[in-house]
Amino acid sequence: MDAVMFPGQGSQRPGMGEPWASAPSWSVVEQVSDVLGRDVGALLLDADAATLQATRNAQVASFALGLVILGAARAAGHAWGAAAGHSLGEYTALVAAGVLDIDAATRLVGARADAMQAAADASPGTMAAVLGLESDAVQASCDAAGGEAWIANDNAPGQIVIAGTHDGIARASAAAKAAGGKVMPLAVGGAFHTPLMGAAQAGLDAALAATAFTDGACPVVANVDAAPHAAGAEWPALLSAQLCRPVRWREGTGTLVGLGVTRVVELGPGGVLTGLAKRTAPSLERLSLASPGDLG
């Protein structure tokens, strides 16, 4: 059984839509643009790195490209029995499972992106990947930051992302390096999945309350509890909690294996998630659909 996976914010890059611009599924970009009242195509084709780093742009662009690739994958005959998405990618996964329709998911992503941009502006922060340390050592490094750094993503063995204030991440990074880890700053515009996103909660919750969720055709493994969920009624609370809580991606990959998944198919501009799957569950087959030539 295949599972589809969608990357989140941080996977974006300039010109990432170009390989897909002539694909029939590109028409969904116009749909997303109409719902949001924004030229999303320009973000995918023309925006520079600085523009795409802004939260309200990165999230919308990454979500739209995921929809383009999702449509192309369906048209090419790909099918799946489970889905998962990393942070923002969870919204695209819910479309893939039939829990959200495209317009509803687009409105949610737009509201989430705007609310998180405002929260990031009010409480500036950043994120960094810590490589080569396990969670207890990374947690100790965050503790050294005096309450200004947290574990945000437990992605794979030896790959954990921390987030916090700029000073907090500097202190936590120094502690992680002293413990033998390698630290890589991430090109994101805020400290996501931490208490610094609390100011975005009301805006996201209002959007979730106004959204219709339906039962999915397949389960989606949630970020916040690493468990599979198919019931639409469960998702507003899960998505609300996801805003300020860490992404349990490593555990979620194990959940997919337990569901009987034998291959993960990443739908996005790169191969980050298939790389994480290789580290966490080497027995899984992996396929990255990063360009039309990958569809087979």
CATH class of the largest domain: Alpha Beta
Approximate helicity band: 40-55%
Total number of domains: 2
Note the run of SSEs as H and E.
EHHHHEHHEHEEHEHEEHHEHE
Q: Would you identify the regions where 5 or more consecutive residues have pLDDT less than 50?
A: none
Order of strands across the biggest sheet?
8-7-2-1-9-10
Question: Which class best fits the helix and strand makeup?
Answer: alpha/beta
Task: Using the CA coordinates, give the radius of gyration.
Answer: 18 Å
Give the amount of beta strand, in percent: 15-25%
Oligomer kind: single chain
List the defining traits of the structure above.
Alpha-Beta Plaits; alpha/beta; single chain; four-stranded antiparallel beta sheet; 296 residues; six-stranded mixed beta sheet; 16% strand
Description:
- With 296 residues, the chain is of the alpha/beta class.
- It folds into 2 domains: 2-122 and 195-294, 3-Layer(aba) Sandwich (Malonyl-Coenzyme A Acyl Carrier Protein, domain 2); 126-185, Alpha-Beta Plaits.
- It contains 12 helices and 10 strands.
- It has helices at residues 27-36, 40-45, 49-53, 55-75, 89-97, 102-122, 135-143, 166-178, 201-209, 235-242, 249-258, 272-280, and strands at 2-6, 82-85, 126-131, 149-156, 159-164, 182-185, 220-221, 228-229, 263-267, 285-289.
- The strands form 2 sheets. The chain has a 6-stranded mixed beta sheet with strand order 8-7-2-1-9-10, sandwiched between helices. A 4-stranded antiparallel beta sheet has the order 4-5-3-6.
- A hairpin with a 2-residue loop joins strand 4 (149-156) and strand 5.
- Helix 5 runs antiparallel to helix 6 and helix 6 runs antiparallel to helix 9.
- The longest helix is centred in the N-terminal third of the chain and has 21 residues, at 55-75.
- It is globular.
- The mean pLDDT is 95.
